[in-house]
Amino acid sequence: MALTAVNSKKKPEMMEQEERLVYNTKNLNLWYGDHHALKNINLGIKEKDVTAIIGPSGCGKSTYIKTLNRMIDLVPGVKTNGTIEYRERDIFSKEFLVEELRTRVGMVFQKPNPFPKSIYENIAFGLKIHGIKNKQIINETVEKSLRGAALWDEVKDRIHEPAYGLSGGQQQRLCIARCLALEPDVILMDEPTSALDPVSTLKVEELIQELKERYSIIIVTHNMQQAARISDKTAFFLNGEVVEFDSTDTIFNSPADSRTDDYISGRFG
Amino acid sequence: MENTARVKSEEMVGRIDGRLMKNKVIKGIFLAATAFTTIILMVLLYRIISQGAPYLSWDFFQNFASRRPEQAGIKAAVIGTIWMMSVVIPTAAILGVGTAIYLEEYAKKSALTRWIQMNISNLAGVPSVVFGLLGLTIFVRVFGFGNTIIAAGFTMALLVLPVVIVASQEAIRAVPNELKEASFGLGATKWQTIYRVVLPYAIPGIATGSILAFSRAIGETAPLIVVGIPTFVAFLPSGYLDQFTALPMQIYNWTSRPQVEFHNLAAAGIIILLAVLILMNSVAVWIRNRFQAR
Ligand SMILES: Nc1ncnc2c1ncn2[C@@H]1O[C@H](COP(=O)(O)OP(=O)(O)O)[C@@H](O)[C@H]1O
Ligand SMILES: [Mg+2]
């Protein structure tokens, strides 16, 4: 698997600052019919970083993150050019099956979307579609994923009950657990806390801090404080363009572009 | 402008009585319409039950058609309808759900699919006699099945197919997009998503719509007459290429006899037909209520 291959190549003498990219977007353009939604995006996303994507509503954040795992393919009439490389493989190439891409790259959506099944079955779903039938493996993975999503203690006595009985925040952590079951390399999150109350939001943010030890996370957020709290890098999108991409610290304290400054200081958006 | 108030509350209050009067009259008209319908239905039911109930005996179910009313029974028609439905249900379900899945999940939204869609909807309104003629031409003659169970079953399946397709499409369309996204997001293929997410969610809706459509196939007479299904059958079919008769055919036959005893037998047959239809509709309603809670 790509992940292990990458790890085995990692030699101790390698310098820490040598950047290993999970995603490298080069000159990406995207159109919905005639609407030019992403304009010449260039973005290199580092392994094990939390990368935040911020920007006003309608600037193309969701479009971009959905392109990263090709969920955008589900929208009819979309055209793209340019390339996105995931671990140096072109995600648009015929050889890279979207099923493989989406197995390596998990996605958490804006609204928690558990299946109308039990908690257990929600997590087993990903394993089953990948042909894993061994009960023991499934049981172990369910527990491990729920622990990984900081949900195990809350639900361990009712994993066979319907997922719809969980609170919104728990449902969202279940959706994260569902991703973890497939041992992804990257987790994409599109405003994962926008439908949650402040307490649940905090829990998800804490979880993201834990997950970054093992996964690369790309998170779209409408909430600038959230980006500032949890991310290492921040990309500011405006009207389909990347205005600025830098360390979160730089973006929030000394942005290079005046539009970034205007946005983070709340002058628009 | 300030002083010339166009509306005066005095005037408006004065009109309330008139408005209330109208309200009452309209309500009365609607009530009368409902009452009229209900009464007609009650009279009809009363007539059928009072005529037919005395004839509902064990013998009635055990006997074949006969020229002597006291020996005539409905066995061949009941068994024949069951045989026919054993063709109609799988045929219409497989073709109907398959078409619905294709149109909703696979087909590109082109002018051609819109045209197909329009035709399917229109077919649902085509008179049943026309389907009878289609069945006569294709299944009885071209395929050479003759006036057998298989020919009648396929004809009835075609008759109910548009309704099954449209009901299934609606059920499939009602599956929340977020659930499909969740499945695709985990690397599922289209078929896995359909099989594991779309169909489980849509099946109650598909079943409800389909059962209502199937109940139509049980009650329809015209296509059977056109296809040439006999009314007087004194044996049980032993295969799909055998002749048979069905409930509505048997009832039709009895009502067209001069003797009043036969009319009573027809009433007894209608009771059975109604019982089957009510049962099927209740099952459909039960499924709908049972799964609506989600
Ligand atoms: N399915 C679609 N069809 C056409 N236009 C779309 C579609 N989805 C998004 N857009 C347009 O693309 C632009 C970017 O949308 P989106 O990526 O959802 O923005 P954000 O997530 O930053 O709010 C918006 O102008 C939006 O109207
Ligand atoms: Mg968005």
Automatic annotation (TrEMBL), chain A:
ABC transporter domain ranges (all copies): 23-264
Keywords, alphabetical: ATP-binding, Nucleotide-binding, Transport
Species assigned in the record: Domibacillus enclensis
GO terms under biological process: phosphate ion transmembrane transport
Gene Ontology molecular function terms on file: ATP binding; ATP hydrolysis activity; phosphate transmembrane transporter activity
Name of the molecule in the record: Phosphate ABC transporter ATP-binding protein, PhoT family
One Pfam family it belongs to: ABC_tran
PROSITE patterns: ABC_TRANSPORTER_1, ABC_TRANSPORTER_2
Keyword Transport carried by entry: yes
Domain of life: Bacteria
GO CC terms, sorted: membrane
Xref: PANTHER family: ABC TRANSPORTER I FAMILY MEMBER 17
From TrEMBL, chain B:
GO molecular function, one term: phosphate transmembrane transporter activity
PROSITE patterns, A to Z: ABC_TM1
Lineage top rank: taxon: Bacteria
Domain ABC transmembrane type-1: 78-283
Record InterPro entries: MetI-like, MetI-like_sf, Phosphate_PstA
Pfam family, one: BPD_transp_1
Principal subcellular localization: membrane
Family, per entry: Belongs to the binding-protein-dependent transport system permease family. CysTW subfamily.
Entry-linked NCBIfam families: 3a0107s02c
Protein name: Phosphate transport system permease protein PstA
Source organism (scientific name): Domibacillus enclensis
